[in-house]
Amino acid sequence: MTVHLLEAFNPIVGRTAFVGLFLPEPWRLSRAVVTPDVQTTVREGERQWVASGETRHVLFHGVRRERADLMVRITPGAARRPLAISAGTEGGVLTVGGHAGEFRLGRRREGWLTSRTVPVVRVRHYCPRTRRTVLLEVCGELPAEELRALLGVFQRVECHGGV
Asked: Could you give phi then psi for residue 40, rounded to 5 degrees?
């Protein structure tokens, strides 16, 4: 299990963490070409956490050469609406980083001119220690069993401790 601290760097503010993600072998993580967006931060313990912002990464499976897009969106406060994806979704509740969370597995439309539907998994939880809602979304051409396996990975997300 490899620990990845998803963070942004600013020369004035320093390092600001989104989440800590524990990925099993053979998964690898690479930052996408989009620069992380941080609007507000909150300090919890020794670490500065993103209180509002978004970052994107790419997950690579080292053996099967599959890839998927990972998006982490942080919003202040607790979410007011249930987590949604398009029709035909499956969902439930789970524990994420020691907090109550919810998940949805399904498909969504992607693209503008040549749109297609892609498999997606979304996991969302509220962290009362940092007072923020964390949404993790993975989409791409992964088999359904891989998306299910990622639910277990997301349960170990670090959202307020020392990664």
From this structure: -140, 160
Distances (CA, A) of 132 to 10, 29, 149: 21, 24, 25
Q: Which domains does the chain have, with CATH numbers?
A: 2-154 (2.60.120)
Spatial separation of the C-alpha atoms in residues 85 and 52, rounded to whole Å: 22
CA–CA dist 139, 158 (Å, integer):
21
Helix (H) or strand (E) run with residue 36 in it: none
Please give the Cα distance from 97 to 161 (Å, whole number). Answer: 9
Residue 8 neighbours by CB under 8 Å, 6+ apart: 15, 16, 18, 35, 36, 37, 38, 50, 53, 55
Structure tokens at 153: 């990975």
**Mean pLDDT within 10-30:** 90
Instruction: Round the average pLDDT of the chain to a whole number and report it.
Output: 89
